[in-house]
Amino acid sequence: MSRELTAADVDDLAVGAWIIGTGGGGNPHLNHLNVQQMAAAGQTFDLIDPEELADDAQVAVVSTMGAPVVMQERLQDSRDVARAVEIMAEYIGRPFDAVMATEIGGSNAFQPLMAAAHLDIPVVDSDAMGRAYPEAQMTSFAIAGLQPWPLALVDPRGVEAVLSHVPTWKWMERASRALTIETGSMAATCKAPRTGAEVKAYGVSNSMSFAIEVGAAVRHARAEHQDPVEATCAAVDGRLLFTGKIVDVERRATDGFLRGMAVLDGLDRWAGKRVELDFQNEWLMARVDGQVVATVPHLICLLDSVSGEAIGTETARYGQRVSLIAMRAPELFSSEEGLRFVGPRAMGYDLDPVDPLADRTSA
C-alpha cells in the first residue's frame, strides 16, 4: 500500500539505509538534512508499493555515482538528481510516473526522495541492489539481462550528458565512471528507464520499508536502553561476527572508487583475534586471523558497538569500538548468474562466496 513518509520514517531511513549500505552508498547525513529541510517546508513524500505500478508505467532509477569520501567534501544539491531525471525524460520523449533508488544503501536511499520533491512524483518502495555495490552493472536489472542504456548524468558545475548506447553493462559502468571521474568523482545519474512490469519482476521489492524498519529497531533499542547491535541482528536476521577496535585503516581514492582495508583487534570473546576488512566503496570480504568468514554478495556491516550507527568505509578511523555483523543477500544475487555480477570473482577475488550465516562454527 502507498503511504506518506513521516518525519520518523525519514530519520529511521537514514539509520537503516546506512546500515544495509554495507559501508558504501555515501554517508546519508547531509542528504538526510536536505530532506528534513524539505519536509519542514511542507514537502511530502509518497511511497508506493511496486505492485501498485501499472505494467507500462515509466520509472526513473536514480543514484549518485562516485567515491564516498568525496561525498563528505562536496555538498549535494537535490536539484541535480531531479535534473538528471528531467534530461532522461526529454531524451525518451515522455515523463516519468515514479522514481526509485538504484541502491538502498547510504545516501543513495535519499536520491529518489529528493528527485520526487522537485518532480512531484511518488517514490517506489524498491531498489536494484538491496544494499550498495560499487559498480553500476551490479544490479538486479543487469542480472536479469535488461537493457543498460541510456543513462543521464549531471554535475553541479553544469555538465550534462546522455550515454545513448553501450555494448554491455560493463561498458556502461566504464563510460559513466570516466565521466564521473572528470567531474570530480561525484555526479547525479538517472539510469536506464524501467517499466512497471520490469520493476515488479526484477526490483528488490519493499527495500525502502525494510531500511526504515531497521532504523526503527535501532531507535527503539536506544530508547529502551537495549543493545542496538543485537536489535539490528534481530531485525535483519543477521549474525554478529566480531567485536573489536579499529587499529588501522588504509584507503585511497583511485579510478572513482574508495579502496583499501580496515584492521580490527578483537575484544570480549574475540580478544586476541584480528579481522581484516577489504573494501571497494563497500565492505567486500572479512577475514578472521586469515580465514575468510564472509564475502559479497552477502552483506557485511560495521556498526558502532554503542550507538548501533553504521560505519562507512570513508568514516572508519582508529580507535572506534565496532561490531561486525552480516546478513544474507537476496536470493537473486546468490544465483549463478547473480554471482557473475556481484560474487567475489566479480570483485577480483579468486574464491567462491562465503555465506556468513551458513551452519558452521562461528568465528
Describe the structure.
The structure is a single chain. 32% of the residues lie in helices and 27% in strands. With 363 residues, it is an alpha+beta fold. The chain folds into two domains: 3-207, 3-Layer(aba) Sandwich (CV3147-like fold), CATH 3.40.1610; 234-347, CV3147-like. A hairpin with a 2-residue loop joins β12 (239-254) and β13 (257-266). α1 (7-20) packs antiparallel against α2, α1 crosses α9 (207-223) and α9 (207-223) packs antiparallel against α10 (228-236). The longest helix has 17 residues, at 207-223. The mean pLDDT is 95.
Beta-strand content: 25-35%
Compute the number of strand runs: 18
Q: How would you name the CATH homologous superfamily of the largest domain?
A: CV3147-like domain
- Name the average pLDDT: 95
Integer count of domains: 2
Oligomer: single chain
Main sheet characteristics: 7 strands, antiparallel
Report the principal-axis shape. Answer: globular
Helix percentage range = 25-40%
Following the backbone from N to C, one meets helices and strands in this order, namely EHHEEHHEHEEHEEHEEHEHHEEEEEEEHH
C-alpha termini separation: 41 Å
**What's the level 1 CATH class of the largest domain?**
Alpha Beta
Q: Within the largest sheet, what's the order of strands? A: 16-15-14-13-12-18-17
Task: Give the low-pLDDT segments.
Answer: none
Radius of gyration: 19 Å
